């Protein structure tokens, strides 16, 4: 029994040490040499034609801001593993080009006004910047907030057009995977759940992460 307790304590210390070593702002994602994966959750009416067309088509609205998230577990938190509400019951994995992802970050501003801008300057910045950046606490499989942040990227205007028409290279559905992980988490089988989660790593293809607002 003492040995088990000691081993458990050692694991917790290791996990905590890893969290401490992760900077507050860091992009973590599943990516290849050509694409980076982001996640979105939608209703059936949007998800089905998107999967069939391999991009977003009507009734997806291009005039609204659409948020993409590279973190799988943050998407699970946001959509409640697909059980939160009917409008987020289908969880999609969207693979986009690195060039498109970089364009989005390079044409972004934070979702909140910087302290050095007055109201008119902030209005002008938003009107001329099609992408919003928001850094929210990363989540674990039980939705607990962690000490470091996860990036959320809001696309509007020109950014949405580029996303739908140029950046998307493929769309797949991960709803069943989300439900399977949810079931394991509910049974407190966290190690098994962790093995099913996508193996995200530090996205080192963009070097100016610290300069991104949010």
Describe it for me?
The chain is of the alpha+beta class and 214 residues long. It has one domain. The chain is 40% helix and 24% strand. It has helices spanning 2-21, 44-53, 72-79, 98-106, 119-127, 158-167, 175-186, 190-196, and strands at 28-29, 35-42, 66-68, 90-97, 108-110, 131-139, 145-155, 168-173, 201-202. The chain has a four-stranded mixed β-sheet with strand order 3-7-6-5. A three-stranded antiparallel β-sheet has the order 2-4-8. A hairpin with a 5-residue loop joins strand 6 and strand 7 (145-155). Helix 4 (98-106) packs antiparallel against helix 6 (158-167) and helix 7 (175-186) runs antiparallel to helix 8. The protein is globular and about 50 Å long. The protein starts with a helix and ends in a 12-residue tail after the last strand. 29% of the residues are buried. The model is unreliable at 1-17 (pLDDT under 50).
Quickly list its features.
214 residues; alpha+beta; four-stranded mixed β-sheet; three-stranded antiparallel β-sheet; disordered N terminus
Task: Please give a quick description of this structure.
The protein is of the alpha+beta class and 214 residues long. It has one domain.
Q: What layout of secondary structure does this protein have?
A:
Layout: H1 2-21, E1 28-29, E2 35-42, H2 44-53, E3 66-68, H3 72-79, E4 90-97, H4 98-106, E5 108-110, H5 119-127, E6 131-139, E7 145-155, H6 158-167, E8 168-173, H7 175-186, H8 190-196, E9 201-202
């Amino acid at each position: 029994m003492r040995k088990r307790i000691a081993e458990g304590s050692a694991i917790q210390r290791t996990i905590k040490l890893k969290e401490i070593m992760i900077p507050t702002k860091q992009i973590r994602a599943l990516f290849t040499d050509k694409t980076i994966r982001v996640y979105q959750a939608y209703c059936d009416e949007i998800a089905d034609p998107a999967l069939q067309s391999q991009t977003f088509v009507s009734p997806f609205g291009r005039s609204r801001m659409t948020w993409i998230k590279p973190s799988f577990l943050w998407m699970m938190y946001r959509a409640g593993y697909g059980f939160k509400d009917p409008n987020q019951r289908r969880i999609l994995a969207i693979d986009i080009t690195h060039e498109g992802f970089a364009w989005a970050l390079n044409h972004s501003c934070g979702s909140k006004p910087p302290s050095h801008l007055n109201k008119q300057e902030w209005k002008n910045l938003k009107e001329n910047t099609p992408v919003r950046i928001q850094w929210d606490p990363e989540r674990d499989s039980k939705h607990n907030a962690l000490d470091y942040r996860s990036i959320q990227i809001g696309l509007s205007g020109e950014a949405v057009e580029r996303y739908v028409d140029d950046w998307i290279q493929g769309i797949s559905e991960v709803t069943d995977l989300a439900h399977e992980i949810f079931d394991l988490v509910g049974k407190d089988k966290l190690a098994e759940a962790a093995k099913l989660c996508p193996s995200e790593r530090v996205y080192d293809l963009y070097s100016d992460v610290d300069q991104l607002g949010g």
